[in-house]
Structure to design on (916 residues):
């Protein structure tokens, strides 16, 4: 959907801000432009909507060169959200969001409806917020209105320059999560500039890591974390990249199938027999609906009559959707090497072991599997 | 970018056109209209009203521009923007024509000199009012009695005795003009100590005297203040000060277009002492008194200049009620 | 004290005269300020544009110099220039022209500053969303600049009221004529009634403009 072909930017005084960059972004993908200050990521983004003129090379949007259209026309079809937001202080929230629809001549009713929808999408009740002024909003609220404004005319493409940069860390994490959920619904093509490696890994479908105007590596977060091209990438991702990479993998991708299960009302002898037959030391106790109640191991049996009396109740579990950092964190804090995996209704889904995780990571590093 | 400049350019252009039209239309004298100009103080306001009201009564379309400064008045008639004014002979000779006044040149002589001098400028000086609103000096009666003074020569003698240390108020421009204070001291052979000179804006010379900030104050001969306060005006026995006779003047171009104007204005002048004749000291004194009384009506009897003028014209049968 | 009583008496006895002089005075001020705004605001917008810094410096410098010209000198100069151009040189025209010149500095400078100091992210987001220069000017920059421009107009009006009092000697009429008249004929009553009237006019205009400033300030910008 967006293609940069050998794009360069040289300023009149000779500074080369961007050197010969080429990459492609598919429709519906969120591509992060990542890099240290001065690497040219913002310059690159601004060349897409022609706020900065290209010195060499071409940029194609949906197959057409971005120089074909008049620049104002072009920009009205590209959402734009920046770090300092730049909400118009003399306009209400509604008027701010309606900015591009007004420029495009949308009729009033359509515009209002759109503004309401977007506010709701951002989790801000329209009735309460439509007529407020930016000065009456908190930083996080302003940021959300900024994003809503960028989405105002439902553009296929969104450019975002450190949109969460000026927000406090706690709110930022929340906004990132909310934004990802919204993106799941809207599936916009997004160019997202940041210098924060964590944000890049969390948000991006693809990452373009830049340094001093050049594109150093372009790939998925997994590519950069597990298959860094050079020392720069390695050090930018950080020495703890293995840990960073954990958030890219979910429990369900690494867990083993459910272990053998047994009901609480069964006899202890039956349990013991099962264990011997299958060569297991441990059985999961589930109820009739499959909900995990606890575990029973050989030493526990013996004196008691039923399974229920012998089992250790469920304490530590991990959800099937969780990312691996959470799993590792639980393993570390509980001291367990194996975790029971449940779904949201607490039904038993499988077992996750530390070894399985290690095995998977090394496979990825060798380039075998993607996440 | 270009569109914005065009819009700004268009607006500016429209405004400039608006201004030019405004100036031309608003200020342009209507054809056939006679513009009378006068200065901004009582005597001039009265004479301006006299001339304007009379001319209007006689069928002319008159516009009166008042409040003008001396320079503006002269510039106005030279630039054909004023048609009729009443300037003082002394002012015309010394300020407008930049000439020196030789003491001894009397009212008649100066009038002739001035009239001749303005002929090449196509400005005609009609019959003069011999009101001689010249400079003078005055003091409170107590001061005069104490030093047994009467004339300027007496005052000069007092200055010589007191080493020039008697406070005097004069007008700003008179202080520095060569035919002003320096010539005056030379003429009466005395010196006033510079620290004892208070130079102020015209009418404030009298205020200084009235407030007793000075002992000797410059005044104007036909002002009504002196009589009202009972001040003593020193006689100019050595005839230093030039005559200042107010005289209606008209542009020749206007006279050609409206020949009747000269007669009307001379008719007005004829109602004053010595109007249309040569001046004598008695005529001048009489005329000064008439003007003092007219000025008094405005400055102390709470009348407006136009009311005083109208009253005068009716009283003298120039216009009907 | 007598002067004050005299001033009151003059006002009470000749109300039509006071009214017509006040009207003349206001006419000069209003016409001059309207023209000054029509010239000054576009000029301020123009020099606030990108790349026009040198022009801006020159224009602002000239406006400052204009302020320092003594008004007496400027009026005299205008009479000479206008009569040389065979244009009306007495009365309303030279007075209004001089007042327009004096009113330029506060208006141009305030417009220029107000537009230049619009928060950069606001301008950037406006452009990034596809506003043309004109749209940016009229939808964003001007509404935000309006309060400061109004403050400049307020300054200009009050200054013009004072300077118009000096214009009397070119025959423009107005309350200044009373002051000049009073000064020449030693009439404290005229000096006071003229001077106080001009002062009151200035105060009223200032208060009125303060209100107007409040009206035109976009709601989102008002201090709370």
């Amino acid at each position: 959907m967006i293609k940069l072909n050998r794009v360069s930017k040289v300023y009149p005084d000779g500074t080369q801000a961007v050197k010969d960059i080429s990459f492609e972004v598919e429709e519906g993908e969120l591509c992060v432009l990542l890099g240290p200050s001065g690497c040219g990521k913002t310059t690159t983004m601004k060349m897409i909507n022609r706020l900065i003129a290209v010195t060499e090379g071409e940029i194609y949007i949906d197959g057409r060169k971005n120089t074909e259209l008049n620049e104002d026309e072009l920009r009205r079809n590209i959402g734009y959200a920046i770090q300092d937001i730049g909400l118009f202080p003399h306009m209400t929230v509604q008027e701010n969001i309606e900015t591009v629809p007004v420029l495009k001549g949308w009729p009033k009713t359509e515009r209002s409806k759109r503004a309401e929808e977007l506010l709701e999408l951002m989790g801000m009740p329209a009735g309460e917020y439509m007529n407020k002024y930016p000065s009456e909003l908190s930083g996080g609220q302003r940021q959300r209105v900024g994003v809503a404004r960028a989405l105002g005319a439902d553009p296929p493409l969104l450019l975002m320059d450190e949109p969460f940069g000026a927000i406090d860390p706690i709110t930022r994490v929340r906004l990132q999560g909310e934004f990802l959920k919204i993106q799941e619904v809207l599936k916009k093509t997004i160019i997202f500039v940041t210098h924060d490696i964590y944000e890049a890994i969390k948000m991006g479908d693809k990452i373009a890591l830049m340094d001093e105007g050049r594109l150093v590596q372009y790939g998925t977060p997994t590519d950069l974390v597990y298959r860094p091209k050079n020392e720069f990438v390695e050090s930018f991702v950080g020495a703890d990249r293995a840990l960073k990479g954990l958030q890219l993998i979910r429990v369900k991708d690494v867990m083993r199938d459910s272990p053998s299960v047994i009901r609480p009302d069964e006899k202890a002898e039956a349990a013991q027999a099962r264990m011997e037959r299958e060569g297991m030391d441990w059985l999961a106790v589930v109820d009739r609906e499959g909900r995990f109640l606890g575990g029973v191991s050989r030493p526990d049996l013996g004196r008691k009559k039923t399974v229920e009396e012998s089992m250790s109740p469920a304490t530590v579990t991990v959800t099937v959707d969780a990312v691996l950092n959470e799993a590792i964190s639980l393993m570390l804090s509980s001291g367990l090497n194996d975790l029971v995996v449940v779904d949201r209704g607490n039904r038993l889904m499988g077992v996750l072991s530390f070894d399985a995780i290690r095995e998977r990571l090394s496979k990825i590093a060798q380039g075998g599997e993607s996440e | 970018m270009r569109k914005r400049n065009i819009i700004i350019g268009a607006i500016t252009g429209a405004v400039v056109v608006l201004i030019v039209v405004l100036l031309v239309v608003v200020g342009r004298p209507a054809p056939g209209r006679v513009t009378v100009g006068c200065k901004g103080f009582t005597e001039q306001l009265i004479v301006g009203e006299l001339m304007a009201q009379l001319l209007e009564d006689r069928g002319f379309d008159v516009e009166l521009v008042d409040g003008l400064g001396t320079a503006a008045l002269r510039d106005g008639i030279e630039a054909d923007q004023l048609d009729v004014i009443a300037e003082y002979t002394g002012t015309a000779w010394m300020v407008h024509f930049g000439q020196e006044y030789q003491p001894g040149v009397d009212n008649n002589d100066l009038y002739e000199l001035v009239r001749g001098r303005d002929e090449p400028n196509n400005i005609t000086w009609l019959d003069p009012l011999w009101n001689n609103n010249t400079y003078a000096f005055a003091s409170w009666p107590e001061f005069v009695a104490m030093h047994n003074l009467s004339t300027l020569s007496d005052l000069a003698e007092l200055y010589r005795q007191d080493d020039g240390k008697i406070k005097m108020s004069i007008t700003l421009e008179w202080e520095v003009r060569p035919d002003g204070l320096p010539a005056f001291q030379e003429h009466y052979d005395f010196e006033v100590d510079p620290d004892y000179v208070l130079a102020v804006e015209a009418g404030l010379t009298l205020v200084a005297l009235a407030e007793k900030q000075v002992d000797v104050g410059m005044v104007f001969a036909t002002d009504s203040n002196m009589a009202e306060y009972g001040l003593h005006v020193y006689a100019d026995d050595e005839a230093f000060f030039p005559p200042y006779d107010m005289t209606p003047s008209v542009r020749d171009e206007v006279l050609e277009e409206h020949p009747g104007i000269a007669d009307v204005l001379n008719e007005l002048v004829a109602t004053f002492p010595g109007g249309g004749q040569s001046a004598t000291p008695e005529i001048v004194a009489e005329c000064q008194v008439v003007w003092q009384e007219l000025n008094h009506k405005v400055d102390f009897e709470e009348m407006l200049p136009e009311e005083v003028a109208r009253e005068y014209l009716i009283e003298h049968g120039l216009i009907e009620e | 004290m007598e002067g004050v009583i005299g001033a009151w008496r003059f006002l009470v006895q000749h109300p039509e005269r006071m009214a017509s002089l006040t009207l003349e005075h206001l006419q000069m001020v209003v016409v001059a300020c309207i023209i000054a705004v029509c010239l000054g605001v576009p000029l301020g917008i123009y020099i606030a544009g990108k790349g026009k810094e040198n022009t801006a410096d020159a224009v602002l410098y000239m406006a400052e110099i204009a302020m320092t010209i003594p008004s007496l000198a400027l009026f005299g100069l205008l009479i000479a220039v206008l009569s040389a151009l065979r244009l009306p040189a007495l009365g309303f025209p030279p007075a209004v022209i001089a007042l327009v010149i004096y009113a330029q500095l506060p208006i141009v400078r305030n417009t220029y500053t107000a537009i230049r100091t619009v928060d950069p992210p606001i301008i950037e987001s406006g452009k990034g969303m596809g506003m043309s220069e004109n749209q940016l000017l009229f939808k964003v920059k001007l509404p935000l600049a309006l309060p400061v421009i109004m403050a400049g107009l307020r300054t200009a009006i009050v200054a013009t009221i004072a300077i118009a009092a000096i214009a009397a000697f070119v025959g423009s009429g107005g309350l200044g004529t009373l002051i000049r008249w009073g000064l020449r004929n030693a009439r404290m009553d005229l000096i006071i009634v003229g001077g106080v009237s001009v002062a009151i006019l200035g105060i009223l205009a200032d208060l009125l403009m303060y209100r107007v400033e409040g009206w035109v300030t976009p709601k989102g910008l008002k201090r709370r």
Chain A has a mean pLDDT of 88. Chain A touches chain C at residues 49, 51, 72-78, 80-92, 99-100, 103, 133-135, 146, 149-150, 159 (CB under 8 Å). The longest helix of chain A spans residues 169-186. The longest strand of chain A covers residues 16-25.
